[in-house]
Amino acid sequence: MADWFSVRMRATEEDILGDGGRHISGCERLVTEDRVHAVLEQMWRRAKSHEHGNAHAINIRIDAIDSASIRRIPPLAIESLAYATVKEGRAASCALLERHGISKTAAQRALAAIATLPRSMRGAMVVDAISGERLDGLGERGVRLSRMDCENEENFTKFLQNAMLRLAIGGDTPRAMAKFREALVLASKAAAAPGYAGELCWSDDPNYSTGYVACGKTYHRISPMKEPGNPIGGRVLFVRPGAPLAEIIDYWQRQPVLVADEFCGPS
Ligand code: WAQ
Ligand code: MG
Questions:
Q1: CB 29 less than 6 A from any atom of ligand 1
Q2: Less Cβ crowding at N or C end of the chain, within 10 Å?
Q3: Separation of first and last alpha carbons in the chain
Q4: Ligand 1 atom 19: residue of nearest CA
Q5: How confident is the model at residue 172 (pLDDT cuts 50, 70, 90)?
Q6: Predicted local confidence at residue 241, as pLDDT
Q7: Percent helix, strand, coil in the chain (nearest 5)?
């Protein structure tokens, strides 16, 4: 069996305020040994050339993963919705969430929570799907999902390209493709947790206004979710009332997960 490695990168700006420095970008992969070197190079390039600013510190951490501990999951189904305005995109997100067991209050509070962040968080807010209360208590750090990837890079790329063709969405630039790929992997891992209800996300990259809502086993790509030039984005993970929070957060942060090739291979 191949040896798998979790590779994580976190880039931060200079720590001027004594709070660890502003988060610029991060990336988490789970790859076989032969791909570690290429992934390190991609991460280095990404950390060095991010629109958020100059990285002052770049942390890269590699952990060997016991392949017997890896859980294989299916990807979410992919759909795409485009609107003329941010207002419509956000309203459609609320409507989708409401159709899948998230209350109007919770959906609206989540939208507002992301939109009013003073600066980007590193991770996601965990929110009760009915009350809309934030549950994780982790402040600006939030919950950072890691140790996830696709099982077979080549087949997964084809799978994504097919979806893009079918939905006539542009993954034309390598950057857009990378964002879509990472978001789908993250959302699919998130959705496989017990007590998960859905997710709301848009990027903090100023020039990336597409976001998504995950619910009902589907990744609904939605644009636009914010105005171009806006540097605020974030993620909310909804959980059902009474869900085993500690267990879910531990799964999100630590359980190695691969989107299994059997669901993405050539059809
Ligand atoms: N775990 C939890 N939260 C995360 C993680 C993670 N591994 N990575 C990012 N976040 C949170 C964090 O608060 C970031 O500020 C926020 O999400 C946005 O991160 O075309 O690019 O990496 O289909 O800017 C969605 C649409 C793109 C993709 C999302 O997010 C598409 C994106 P970004
Ligand atoms: Mg970003």
A1: no
A2: C
A3: 25
A4: 203
A5: low
A6: 97
A7: 35, 30, 40
Token pair 């951490």: residue: 61
Measured from the Cα of 124, ligand 1's closest atom is 3
Residue 193 predicted with pLDDT over 60? yes
- Does this model's pTM top 0.90? My answer is yes
- With a 6 Å cutoff on the Cβ, whether 6 touches ligand 1 is no
pLDDT (tens digit per residue) in 34-50: 999 999 999 999 888 86
Strand order in the sheet with 71-73: 71-73, 257-259, 148-150
Q: Which amino acid is at 72?
A: R
H/E stretch holding 219: strand 218-223
- Beta-carbon contacts of 45 under 8 Å, excluding residues fewer than 6 positions away, are none
Distance CA 21, CA 242 (A): 35
The DSSP letter of residue 201 is E
Element (H, E) at 32: strand 23-32
User: Residue 24: what pLDDT?
Assistant: 85
**pLDDT over 70 for what percent of the chain?**
94
Q: Is 237 in the pocket of ligand 1 (CB under 6 A)?
A: no
Closest atom of ligand 1 to 146 CA is 7
Question: Which residue in the block uniquely carries the two structure tokens 């919705």?
Answer: 81
Which segments of the chain does DSSP mark as H helices, in order? Answer: 33-48, 86-98, 104-115, 153-167, 174-191, 245-254
156 lines ligand 1 (CB under 6 A): no
